[in-house]
Amino acid sequence: MAQTLARDSIGRDSDIHDGTPFYYSKFLIYENQRRLNTEESPPMSVSRPARPPAAPPRGRARPPSPRALALAAALLAALAPAPLAAEERLTVAARVVEDPRPVFATVESVREVEARARIPGSLARLEVREGDAVAAGQVIALVEDAKLPLQIAALDARLGALAAQRRQAALELERTRALRATGTATQARLDDAQTALDVVEGQIAAAQAERAVVVQQQREGEVLAPQAGRVLRVRGTPGAVVMPGESLATIATDRYVLRLRLPERHARFLRAGDPIEVGARGLADGAPLGRGRITLVYPELQQGQVVADAEVQGLGDFFVGERVRVTIAADRRAAILIPRRFLMDGPGVDLVRLASGAVVPVQRGPARGEEVEILSGLSAGDVLVRP
């Protein structure tokens, strides 16, 4: 009996931790002890009042504070979709884009002209060497023919003799006119004297023209630059014999172009006037030269390649044949482009939100400025909503 009461007292004493009032537990202990001492009947059962709600045991999470509830509400409001009236929408449409391709071009002059000898003879001297800049009409070499000075001297002697004959014919004509005035000479004699003077004057004119031809031949021994530019190649050695038409120097004109040679599959995309991007000089990673444009696409394929010329400012000090990196539009095709702000970053994939509410994955392509090409996942006519 005592053990039973002790257990009951201990059990009821433990109710202190369950929310039972302290005074009520003391009362039960006192009553049980009194009945045990007087050996009365089993302790009376006293009905306890309704137990208040138990306090949360130690170790359990506390209820959220008002500050946490306010923060959660703010996050939910931020993540909630905006009203339909404020949504930014985009209707997907395909458009034509150009695919840039890096290629190499060479610096070449628009024309390369040959400075040729005009008369046969010996090369007396060369006035230029490779790399020199020349002006149009500048003397770059001299060819001498030893026979030409002799011919000029012979013609000068002949002209001297004809001049003496002319003076004699003029005197004879004057005397015949005086005799004719007195009636001593006949009219036929006067006519013969006039004819003799005219013949000598004709011979003098012919000799003078012949001398001018020889002098011009001697002058043509000067080899002139046909156009302004830079000397690329020099041929010949002073003292060597040259023939008429033989090239003594090759001159590149001052106007330089970039010459592109591309595979023939690009021929249908190249057009005169297309823009190009020119890289840094010498294949280095320096500042690019800028932009240029294609001026001529040659109508003939050369060894399976299409040839085109492009004009760019600042090629004057380049070497002829120097290679330069160029970016051209080698292809034109239809593609879908959307602004970056319509893309969402997913777990290893890019996502977009449709107007229907669906979220679909897309495959991103190369960026083009502020837009991104979509390779798959969208089709023309789809309506996107900005996330």
Mind explaining what this structure looks like?
The chain is α+β, with helices and mostly antiparallel strands and 387 residues long. It has 3 domains: 2-38, no CATH class; 112-249, RNA polymerase II/Efflux pump adaptor protein, barrel-sandwich hybrid domain (OB fold (Dihydrolipoamide Acetyltransferase, E2P)); 257-385, Beta Barrel (Elongation Factor Tu (Ef-tu), domain 3). Helices cover 29% and strands 33% of the residues. It has 5 helices and 20 strands. It has helices spanning 2-13, 22-38, 66-79, 147-182, 187-219; strands spanning 89-91, 94-109, 112-116, 121-126, 133-134, 139-144, 222-224, 229-234, 241-242, 247-253, 256-263, 275-278, 290-297, 305-311, 323-339, 344-345, 350-354, 359-368, 371-376, 383-385. The strands form 3 sheets. Strands 2-11-14-13-12-15 form a 6-stranded antiparallel barrel. The chain has a 4-stranded antiparallel β-sheet with strand order 3-10-8-5, with no helix packed on it. Strand 13 (290-297) and strand 14 (305-311) form a beta hairpin. Helix 1 (2-13) packs antiparallel against helix 2 (22-38) and helix 4 (147-182) runs antiparallel to helix 5. The radius of gyration is 57 Å and the shape is rod-shaped.
Count of separate DSSP helical elements: 5
Secondary structure category: alpha+beta
- The first-to-last residue Cα distance is 76 Å
Which strands sit side by side, in order, in the main sheet? Answer: 2-11-14-13-12-15
CATH architecture of the largest domain: Beta Barrel
Helix amount, in percent?
25-40%
- Mean pLDDT across all amino acids: 79
Largest sheet: 6 strands, antiparallel, barrel
* Approximate strand percentage: 25-35%
User: What CATH first level of the largest domain would be assigned?
Assistant: Mainly Beta
**Shape summary:** rod-shaped
CATH superfamily of the largest domain: RNA polymerase II/Efflux pump adaptor protein, barrel-sandwich hybrid domain
Question: Which residues form runs of ≥5 with pLDDT under 50?
Answer: 1-24, 39-50, 52-57
Number of strands: 20
Count of discrete structural domains: 3
Rg, Å, rounded = 57 Å
N-to-C series of helices and strands = HHHEEEEEEHHEEEEEEEEEEEEEE
